[in-house]
Amino acid sequence: MIGPLSAAKSARNEILLLILGFAVLVVVGASSVWIAGRNAVFNAQLAQTSELKSHILLTLSVAQNAETGQRGFLLTNDEGYLTPYETALAAWEPRIRRLAELVGPTGPQHDRASALAAALKIKMDELAETVALQRAGKFSEAHAVVETDRGRDAMLEVRRIVTEMRAYEDDQFAKRSGDAAWGAKLQLAVVIIGLLVAAALAYGAQVIVRRQTRTLKAAQDELSRANAGLEAAVAERTSELTTANDEIQRFAYIVSHDLRAPLVNVMGFTSELDAARRVLKDQIDALIEASPGSVGEEARLAVDEDLPEAIGFIRASTTKMDRLINAILKLSREGRRVVTPESVSIRDVAEQIAATLHQQTQSADAEIVVEPGTPPLVTDRFSIEQIFQNLIENAVKYLDRSRPGRIVVRGRRVGAQVEYMIEDNGRGIDAKDHERVFELFRRAGAQDQPGEGLGLAFVRASVRRLGGVITLTSNPGQGSTFHLTFPAVFRVQSESRAA
Amino acid sequence: MSASNQRSVVIVMIEDDEGHARLIEKNVRRAGVNNEIRHFADGTSALSYLKSPEVRENGPMLILLDLNLPDMTGIDILTILKGDDRLRRAPVIVLTTTDDKVEIQRCYDLGCNVYITKPVDYDTFATAIRQLGLFLSVMQVPDA
């Protein structure tokens, strides 16, 4: 399935695609801006070309108007015909200046404009000369000036230059139009390519996302399969453990039970033996009384001392064995008890236990404090009462008599669990005995109190049955704290309990 | 069983532990019970005796039953006894080491008349058996 390496690779691919997409956007955007700029320039140039063209025409018309007025005046000698000439005379110099401005300081058009200005000057000078001669009444001289063809040549020159300038501008216009069209085509191409690349990137991204979704889904399926397997494994283990536990419980029950039957015989026949001894003793006593010396000293001692001693030891041992067997029976019976969870106020439980221990605590100059914040628990009432009973009793039992005793019961909720502490300032438990005290028939410290070593073994078995954990912290000579952790709500496992 | 009294009650003791059987017999006798006691150490022989025609014709009887037997449990025997037309009237006293509440209930449900847990402490045991003997000496057993 998907490994971390390929996951990193696909993440890199995604980032690469994203970067490429942005790059395409930037290229398309930049080209648009560039084309727009070019268009603006082109439009400005177009406007300038149009103005220049109209100015060239205006300049030509100024020359023509001036010539028309001069011709009319020369022919008719009527001043009235001079009006176009007069207008042109006033207009030609500003026109030339404006033209010079429009063509700029350099370039072929500037040279042509200068040539045009020169030709126009010659023409206007010739016109002015003829008009002046005419006005002075020197008609023939005026005609002679005209006939030099100076004016005609200048006029031809003007026309030629104007035509040339217009042609040049038209040429420029066509060229710029071509450029603009090419730019538009370029932009179209860029946009189309950009769109295509973007589409390709989008498709690629979608493919990658789809593939990733597929691998994710596969991983998820795998995970849920693994989870299901895990659950099955846990269930299997749990049932195995439950079976093993039940077997141990049954074993303990059967063993303790079967041990009891021979013990009844041992104890019974020991008593019978004792009864028989008493009969013998009576007989021997009678014999000794009747005839002293008829019974040997050894026989008397055997009946009077050896037999009672032996019987006494047998009895003591069987009594102890009986207690031990009963302890195992009690443990196994508790393990077979059906647990019924209910809400139990641990505070009330502890306070009730404290009340029943009032006599002992008073004589030991001790107090039992149950903190008000001790949280309740949903669990088996009987078992939890026995657990606290044992632990609090132990705390009272093993107080240090040299100082006033103080036993504190408190608890707090930790997530889905509840933690209780039973803290005393008693004699404490040596670190090496922290595990040992929980073992069956084992005790720790000075053996100055009665007990079988059952209490804590029983407590630990019960705590475990309620799904809890018990631990111990202690400083020898300063006190011990027993920590109990239970699930806040005990759930009965759906296991088949062997009857 | 005295030949003169054909109606004398026979005590059938089904007990696999010879020692227990002996102790029970001793203490029953000490209580002054002189009835015949027939002892069986396993369920099979006990049942074959109880089902024999000889027993069916032979007067009333009382059964002392241990629950822990090598070949079958006392519960099985109790079930068979209480399912038998003739034998079901015979009082059954379960005398065993088991003090499990569930077991005790089951025995009474199946029709056991008295359930006694054998005390491990011998004095208590002896006392219990002697009291049982006294009880046996006064109780009425239905005729066959």
Question: What would you say this structure looks like, in words?
Answer:
Chain B: One of its GO terms (biological process) is phosphorelay signal transduction system. Chain B: This is Response regulator. Chain B: Keywords: Phosphoprotein. The complex is a heterodimer of chains A (499) and B (144). With 499 residues, chain A is an alpha+beta fold. Chain A is built from 10 helices and 7 strands. Chain A folds into 3 domains: 4-214, Four Helix Bundle (Hemerythrin (Met), subunit A), CATH 1.20.120.1730; 244-335; 338-487, Heat Shock Protein 90, CATH 3.30.565.10. A 5-stranded mixed beta sheet of chain A has the order 2-4-5-7-6. Chain A has a two-stranded antiparallel ribbon with strand order 1-3. The two termini of chain A are 49 Å apart. Chain B has one domain (10-137): 3-Layer(aba) Sandwich (Rossmann fold), CATH 3.40.50.2300. Chain B is built from 6 helices and 5 strands, in the order E-H-E-H-H-E-H-E-H-E-H. In chain B, strands 2-1-3-4-5 form a 5-stranded parallel beta sheet. In chain B, helix 1 (18-30) links the parallel strand 1 and strand 2 (37-40). In chain B, helix 1 crosses helix 6. Mean pLDDT of chain B is 82; it is low at 1-6. Chain A binds chain B through residues 257-258, 260-265, 267-272, 322, 333, 499, and chain B through 17, 19-20, 23, 26, 68, 97-98, 100, 102, 118, 120-123, 125-126.
